[in-house]
């Protein structure tokens, strides 16, 4: 038995070594897919943070003080930091975009290496980014809906009829952030599958 | 070599079989931990949905119509479905609680079996629950903060000084849902680790 095994191993020793190396090396597709997703997550959250962070609109509103006099034109401004939900939304996207850049760099440096600790750590942080981004999106969307529709029950009037550009910019930012969140969600879901494929 | 191996195998054949079975069976700790977490997720999201779904308060507010007359006492109500963010929050918790119950049952039925497809599917749904719950929490918290503090820039007045019980119930529900979300986040992060331990 020992002799047969030895003979087989000796006979294909060179090929066996190459095959073993090829199996240990992760397939290029999986690693590239992870890198592309991390790059997308970084770009989308960065864009969302910039779009909401530069959101500002000043408009002239006619206000009637006395019925007998013509309305007064008053300049009113809307800035992104006036609503705490938008501040949270920007901070969440800034954190996610910073993490996206760092994780992209670390993935590039660790390419081809199979580190269990590194894999676990990055899955934890990916999941935290999903939680952070989705809560930020939820908060910004809830305030956005209020701005568009108002709420008669609590007497919160809509503001998007006055600050249209401001609201459109918030909506664009929410869409970008939502796409970024989906990318991080994909990373959480796909990474364990990609890693198990690399191992097998 | 063959003889030595055969002798050893023959000598401990009975014990070897039992050990092999014990190795294939997952350790009780990992499976129980998953079940406890799923139960916690189910209970917390169910409690959050019930607490917000039963939130209703009617209070008497004195309104002065004419300065020379005493104020009129008007009954005003606050219900959970008056704000779309709370409706979304309740639906998110109801979905997560239903999923928690189903996944708990399926985990119990699949206990001891190592199914890759089932593991992948449940990780995807766990991650979706994290996204859903955190966006619901973000939306409810954003509206809750507005209710407590109001916002002078957009002239949205605070309402929690009038509807105190209503706001406290919303706050309790958000805390319960936040705990439930953390449980699902733990499942997403811990399950791959628990599963890889079971396999090794």
Automatic annotation (TrEMBL), chains A, B:
Topology relative to the membrane: Multi-pass membrane protein
Principal subcellular localisation of the protein: membrane
InterPro entries per record: CASP/CASPL, CASP_dom, CASPL
The keyword Acyltransferase is assigned to this record: no
Protein keywords: Cell membrane, Membrane, Transmembrane, Transmembrane helix
TM segment ranges: 35-54, 86-109, 121-150, 170-194
Domain of life: Eukaryota
GO CC annotation terms, alphabetical: plasma membrane
Residue ranges constituting the Casparian strip membrane protein domain according to the UniProt record: 31-182
Compartments reported by the entry: Cell membrane
NCBIfam families, per the entry: A_tha_TIGR01569
Subunit structure: Homodimer and heterodimers.
Family under the similarity heading: Belongs to the Casparian strip membrane proteins (CASP) family.
Protein name: CASP-like protein
Lineage: Eukaryota, Viridiplantae, Streptophyta, Embryophyta, Tracheophyta
């Amino acid at each position: 038995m020992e002799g047969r095994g030895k003979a087989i191993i000796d006979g294909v020793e060179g090929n066996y070594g190459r095959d073993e190396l090829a199996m240990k090396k992760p397939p290029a597709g999986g690693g590239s897919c992870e890198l592309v997703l991390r790059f997308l997550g970084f770009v989308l959250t960065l864009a969302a943070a910039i779009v909401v962070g530069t959101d500002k609109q000043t408009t002239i509103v006619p206000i009637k003080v006395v019925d007998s006099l013509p309305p007064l034109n008053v300049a009113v401004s809307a800035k992104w930091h006036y609503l705490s939900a938008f501040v949270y939304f920007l901070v969440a996207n800034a954190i996610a975009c910073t993490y996206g850049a760092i994780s992209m760099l670390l993935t590039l440096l660790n390419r081809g290496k199979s580190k269990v600790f590194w894999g676990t750590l990055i899955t934890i942080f990916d999941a935290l980014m999903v939680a952070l981004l989705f809560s930020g999106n939820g908060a910004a969307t809830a305030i956005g809906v209020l701005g568009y529709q108002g709420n008669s029950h609590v007497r919160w009037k809509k503001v998007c009829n006055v600050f249209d550009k401001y609201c459109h910019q918030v909506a664009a930012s929410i869409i970008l952030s939502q796409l970024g969140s989906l990318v991080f969600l994909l990373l959480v879901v796909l990474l364990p599958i990609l890693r198990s494929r690399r191992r097998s």
